[in-house]
Amino acid sequence: MQASAVEIQKVNKHFGPFHALKDVDLSIPPGRVTCLIGPSGSGKSTLLRCINFLEPYDSGEIRIDGRLMGYDAPGRKMGGRALREMRRSIGMVFQQFNLWPHMTARENVAEGLIRVRGMSRADAATRAAAALAKVGLADKMDNHPSRLSGGQQQRVAIARAIAMEPRLMLFDEPTSALDPELVGEVLSVMKTLASEGMTMVVVTHEMGFAAHVADRVAFMERGELVAADTPAAILHQPQDPRIQSFLRTYHERNSF
Amino acid sequence: MDLLQQYGPALLRGFGYTILCWALGTVFAMALGLVIALSRHYGPRWLGWILQIYIEVIRGTPFLVQLFVLYYGGPLIGLRLDALPAGLLGLTLYGSPYFAEIFRAGFRAVPLGQLEAARAIGMTEPAIVRRILLPLSMVSALPALVNFSIILTKETVILSIITVPELMYQVSRMSAETFRFVEANLVLALFFWGLVEAISRLGRRFESRVTKHLIERT
């Protein structure tokens, strides 16, 4: 058994009096796709954001390739330099894309390469063009985000992340803000990425994606990690009544 | 006509000083305002409180009074300045809290997600400020920055009371010597109108360039 890419142990997170994550344990295997599913407000996004420490967790451990994320020792946060260094190898894609609107698609992708990787402008532009070509946007490189559809914007955001050559990619509901007809183009880019062996953690409401692309599915509810198993075990033969009820609601909403 | 021949050069020189005082005062005040806004944004809490007090005091007192205190009170604590440097320092101190508040509002209007995206790829905070926070805050801050710069043009007339030889100073001299108050002040008004018109035109052009891709047009 290969070591985990991300090892989450007994992680807790509070927002004031609200207990958002309760003793969460989860192993993310390398080179695989792990989907986090569950009702909204269950802590999926919070857990994802704890992995790259955009959200500091209160207790427990998150180890990325064996290294403790965010803390030098329990209770002592790591310095900015160490944190940035760890984040460099973790790509993140957001629900709202979060492209920088004053830069073109290519500039959005090149920015991190220049500022973080220290590449020259010319090298960064070449690498950015390659990343954009990979997500099928070679012809939109010089467009600003305001001139791109939601699906195109999200693909630029994916290109921005993969251009940094991360070892791990986090997706926070990447298709939830998209019109239904634009969901497919984003999912297909993600499938390609998965087939190349990228380690991916995906918070999603796309059960189809979870069923067909994920290697593991983890179900969360009310801050607890209820179960993590193969997609078939979670989605087709769920044992836990909470998962059964979640899937029933999902199927009812999506039937017509 | 004689009047123009006699006082024209002095008025022009005065106008030059007015533009100089306004331009330098605005640049310095804006720079100090930015430093204050960033310090409140990133600095420790005690620094934020001190700056908050500074903002309240400066905004709560008239510029005229501040200038008197600085120019005539300064020497009591060993701060001896000529009229022009004192005037520039006064404008800088007076304008900085307003600019600081404009920047603060601009920062708050930047969507958090766009800053998180920069943090997530490992950009340093100074790079994030320079490349993301400042440019995006201009969407909401720029009109207010131009607006306050225009207000500052007219505050420069107050520098005449500490004998900075700007336009108001020359106009007062002319009216005192000739008793032609109306003409003298008409000249003053025309000069200022021209200056403000030029600044607001420049501001609008700058604004449309900066915000070209930032504001959704439907």
TrEMBL record, chain A:
It is found in: Cell membrane. Transmembrane segments: none annotated. The keyword ATP-binding applies. PROSITE patterns: ABC_TRANSPORTER_1, ABC_TRANSPORTER_2. Keywords: ATP-binding, Cell membrane, Membrane, Nucleotide-binding, Transport. It is a peripheral membrane protein. It holds the Pfam family ABC_tran. InterPro entries: AAA+_ATPase, ABC_ATPase_HisP-typ, ABC_transporter-like_ATP-bd, ABC_transporter-like_CS, MetN_ABC_transporter-like, P-loop_NTPase. GO terms for cellular component: plasma membrane. CDD domains: ABC_HisP_GlnQ (cd03262). GO terms for molecular function: ABC-type amino acid transporter activity; ATP binding; ATP hydrolysis activity. Residues 6-247 form the ABC transporter domain. PANTHER family: AMINO ACID IMPORT ATP-BINDING PROTEIN (PTHR43166), L-CYSTINE IMPORT ATP-BINDING PROTEIN TCYN (PTHR43166:SF35). Belongs to the ABC transporter superfamily. This is Amino acid ABC transporter ATP-binding protein. It comes from Paracoccus sediminis.
Automatic annotation (TrEMBL), chain B:
It comes from the Bacteria. It holds the Pfam family BPD_transp_1. The keyword Ligase does not apply. GO terms for molecular function: transmembrane transporter activity. It is a multi-pass membrane protein. One of its GO terms (cellular component) is ATP-binding cassette (ABC) transporter complex. PROSITE patterns: ABC_TM1. The chain crosses the membrane at residues 15-37, 49-71. It is found in: Cell inner membrane; Cell membrane. Keywords: Amino-acid transport, Cell membrane, Membrane, Transmembrane, Transmembrane helix, Transport. CDD domains: TM_PBP2. InterPro entries: AA_ABC_transptr_permease_3TM, ArtM/GltK/GlnP/TcyL/YhdX-like, MetI-like, MetI-like_sf. Residues 15-200 form the ABC transmembrane type-1 domain. One of its GO terms (biological process) is amino acid transport. The keyword Transmembrane helix applies. Belongs to the binding-protein-dependent transport system permease family. HisMQ subfamily. This is Amino acid ABC transporter membrane protein 2, PAAT family. It comes from Paracoccus sediminis.
